[in-house]
Design goal:
Strand order of the largest sheet: 1-2
Order of helices and strands: HEHHHHHE
Strand content: under 5%
Number of helices: 6
Length: about 260
């Protein structure tokens, strides 16, 4: 083996190139207390006082109204879809209770004059969509208020405990829809309608002259309710796209500026 060549170990690497022993001296800023001159302190104090004095004159940076409207519309839409599902079960049970021909799939009788008391949803779609949001909401509110009255009358006439239970549960859900529509109108700044589109039949109104016509009244009540819920779901779906829940609007109502 050959003679080993001695290896010289280099010393520590300089912290910075070109400075064998030390890094260049850089002045380090000295942390000290923030010093405010008298004029600066007085200016900040004056600004805060002015802001506090004007708070009563600025009742809104209000970011809750449109956000609340969006949530209310979404809740009403969800409730409408739930009622659609609930009505399919209720209608099947009730039509079986009425018996043939009312429980036959292809049964589609003409609407009798007696059924005109029930608010009809058979309006031309273009005409319906041409209404303002306020007008459509008011029509929904009035219609469901009247339909609820008729359904409660059915609840009192139901012949089985199961049917009474289903009708009672559905009436409670429909009452919730009426209140939810009222909440949507309020959150959008629309006044509630003065009352339903027309009062329900007074207690002295003659009943159907025979059992078949009475069943026809019940059939048309369920059919119109189904159409109303179908159309209302579309209405609230379009309305929630106009007022999305995530949108926050800041409205500044300055008084005296």
């Amino acid at each position: 083996m050959g003679t080993g060549v001695p290896v010289r170990c280099a010393g520590p690497l300089p912290a910075y190139p070109g400075t064998p022993n030390h890094a260049p001296t850089v002045p380090v800023p000295h942390l000290s207390r923030m010093e405010l001159r008298t004029g600066d302190s007085w200016g900040i104090f004056t600004f805060l006082c002015a802001a506090l004095c004007n708070l009563p004159a600025l009742p809104a940076l209000n970011c809750t109204e449109e956000l609340g409207a969006g949530q209310s519309i979404q809740k009403t839409y969800d409730l409408t879809r739930y009622l659609e599902h609930q009505l399919r079960t209720l209608a099947g049970t009730y039509l079986n209770y009425l018996g043939p021909p009312f429980n036959e799939p292809d049964f589609n009788p003409p609407r009798l004059a007696r059924a005109e008391r029930v608010p009809s949803a058979t309006v031309d779609l273009d005409l319906w969509r041409g209404l303002t949001d306020n007008a459509r909401l008011a029509a929904n509110y009035r219609a469901y208020s009247r339909l609820l009255c008729y359904l409660r009358a059915l609840d009192g006439q139901a012949g089985t405990a199961e049917l009474r239970h289903r009708l009672g549960h559905f009436c409670s859900s429909l009452q919730g829809l009426v209140l939810s529509i009222a909440g949507v109108m309020s959150s959008l700044g629309y006044p509630l309608p003065a009352g339903p589109a027309g009062p329900p039949a007074p207690p002295g109104t003659p009943v159907a002259p025979n059992d078949f016509l009475k069943k026809m009244d019940d059939f048309w009540l369920l059919k119109e309710l189904q159409t109303w819920l179908w159309r209302s779901a579309k209405d609230f779906n379009r309305l929630k796209k106009k007022v999305p829940p995530a949108v926050v609007t800041l409205r500044l109502e300055a008084r005296g500026f």
